């Protein structure tokens, strides 16, 4: 019976949905995490009688036909482009993005990585780095004798020194935007790399050409909505149960057929 295979695809789809939801809930406290959403599509249809098929000598056509679906499959897991709320931390190197864009970092293999996680640190050499020690690009080094550091909304980094009245400009933090940010490849650790689907990065100063601005002393919270995720989880669980009941019903029908005398 086709119903067994169809219901099995439904159970597999709902299981995949639960896995996506569980990952979202696990990242409720991850800085700048953007939730994922499972999307599905129906499988191939068996054309028992195609619409428009001529059924008699007088040219009568079937208005709808008989098309039997074979189930469902996971089509994609899409990253929602949602802005998480900004939480004030007061940290000198805590930076939140307000709007579109990603910070660019240099990965250990030399490739460019991208992240919205602005929980930055200062390394022993004075570089501005991520929590995993990846240097920000372009490279900005804070002098050892700097008394304070200020980063404005345009990404300009200024250092204040005790013997100077005016601050010294050390460099500017740039942001990257993509034609299709949902096409980025997630590496884990809040990092992404470009793919042919995302297009190449367009890098420039914050606040220009659709890029967001930088807020020093803030961090972007996870954009996960726990209430929505729990609602989706219940819906996925019920969908799984319904498909399992279809398998039970189909099994009973097969059993009745076998037992016929």
From TrEMBL:
Taxonomic source organism: Rubricella aquisinus
UniProt-recorded name of the protein: Flagellar basal-body rod protein FlgG
Pfam families, A to Z: Flg_bb_rod (PF00460), Flg_bbr_C (PF06429), LlgE_F_G_D1 (PF22692)
GO biological process per UniProt: bacterial-type flagellum-dependent swarming motility
Gene Ontology CC terms: bacterial-type flagellum basal body, distal rod
Lineage: superkingdom: Bacteria
Subunit and partners: The basal body constitutes a major portion of the flagellar organelle and consists of four rings (L,P,S, and M) mounted on a central rod. The rod consists of about 26 subunits of FlgG in the distal portion, and FlgB, FlgC and FlgF are thought to build up the proximal portion of the rod with about 6 subunits each.
Subcellular location: Bacterial flagellum basal body
SUPFAM superfamilies for the chain: Flagellar hook protein flgE
Domain Flagellar hook protein FlgE/F/G-like D1 positions: 96-159
UniProt keyword annotations, A-Z: Bacterial flagellum, Cell projection, Cilium, Flagellum
């Amino acid at each position: 019976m086709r119903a067994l295979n169809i219901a099995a695809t439904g159970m597999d789809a709902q299981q995949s949905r639960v896995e996506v939801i569980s990952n979202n809930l696990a990242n409720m406290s991850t800085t700048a995490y953007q939730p994922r959403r499972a999307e599905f599509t129906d499988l191939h249809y068996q054309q028992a009688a195609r619409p428009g098929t001529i059924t008699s000598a007088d040219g009568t056509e079937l208005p709808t036909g008989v098309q039997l679906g074979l189930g469902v499959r996971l089509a994609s897991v899409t990253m929602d482009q949602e802005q998480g709320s900004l939480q004030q931390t007061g940290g000198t190197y805590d930076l939140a993005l307000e709007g579109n864009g990603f910070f660019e970092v240099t990965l250990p293999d030399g490739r460019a990585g991208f992240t919205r996680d602005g929980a930055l640190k200062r390394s022993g050499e004075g570089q501005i780095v991520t929590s995993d020690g990846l240097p920000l690009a372009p490279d900005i080094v804070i002098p050892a004798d700097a008394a304070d550091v200020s980063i404005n909304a345009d990404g300009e980094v200024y250092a204040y020194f005790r013997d100077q009245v005016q601050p010294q400009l050390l460099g500017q933090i740039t942001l990257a935007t993509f034609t299709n940010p949902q096409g980025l490849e997630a590496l884990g650790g809040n990092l992404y790399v470009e793919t042919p689907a995302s297009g190449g990065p367009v890098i420039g100063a914050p606040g220009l050409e659709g890029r967001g601005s930088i807020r020093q002393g803030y961090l972007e919270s996870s954009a996960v909505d726990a209430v929505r995720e729990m609602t989706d989880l219940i819906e996925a669980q019920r969908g799984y149960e319904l498909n399992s009941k279809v398998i039970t019903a189909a099994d009973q029908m097969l059993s009745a057929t076998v037992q016929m005398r």
